[in-house]
Amino acid sequence: MAKKSVASLQTGAKRLTKAVKMVKSPKTGAYSFVESIMDPADVSDYFSKK
Prior knowledge:
Pfam families: DUF4295. By secondary structure, the chain is mainly beta. The chain is 12% helix and 38% strand. It contains 1 helix and 3 strands; from the N terminus they run βββα.
């Protein structure tokens, strides 16, 4: 799991964070990556939910 701030996402007064989460598929057992762009305050909630 990683959290990365991208310079191109910082526009004006609003700061955004790109969060990348690794998710395991229950059917095949393979891992995939889910990316989301959100407010930095919401990142911990994003990683805590399944």
